[in-house]
Amino acid sequence: MLDKLKIIDFPKIEDPRGNLTFVQQNKHIPFAIERVYWIYDVPGGQVRGGHAFKKQQEVIVALSGSFDVLVNNGKQEVSYTLNRSYFGLYIPNGIWRSLQNFSTNAVALVLSSTRFSESDYIRNYEQYKHYLNVANE
Ligand code: TYD
Q: How far is the CA of 89 from the CAs of 41, 57, 70, 102, 112, in angstroms?
């Protein structure tokens, strides 16, 4: 299941005046974007995430600074370091994730396939494992 995760290399228009990157839904982003949010002003040592989504797919971009995204499918764990604003990490639904090791001034942009819905979250790891077992039956 972790093989569906991928780093997406966004277009980068290099220019002596400063570089520009853009994304279009269903082209560079493999879903229609329903919501965008961003995480910033993260105090040193804090961890965000710590949950999975039943439906939400997302692409996470380090717009500024760097942080690690730790992903887990109940069996394997992989860590991605994001530190370039022209790379996005695609995470399908059903994956447990945490964001950590935020640098000073890091900004994590999240492009989401769904609107916010608390009922889409699985916030307890034991419940997540149960969810996977039921989904795989
Ligand atoms: P949460 O997704 O748990 O944060 P994290 O980035 O650490 O996973 O969201 C934190 C709080 O913000 C939670 O109470 C839900 C609320 N929230 C919204 O109201 N709308 C949103 O789009 C998001 C992402 C979160």
A: 21, 11, 11, 16, 12
The pair of structure tokens assigned to 35 is: 């919501």
Q: Tell me if the pTM is above 0.90.
A: yes
Q: Give the model confidence (pLDDT) of 16-33 as tens digits.
A: 999 999 999 999 999 999
Tell me the C-alpha distance between 117 and 98, whole Å: 18
Answer yes or no: is the C-beta of 94 below 6 A from any ligand 1 atom: no
Q: Is 40 a pocket residue for ligand 1 (Cβ < 6 Å)?
A: no
- Residue of minimum CA distance from atom 9 in ligand 1: 49
Q: Which CATH number fits domain 2-135: 3.90.1530.10, 1.10.10.10, 2.60.120.10, 3.40.462.10?
A: 2.60.120.10
Distance of alpha carbon 2 from alpha carbon 78, whole angstroms: 8
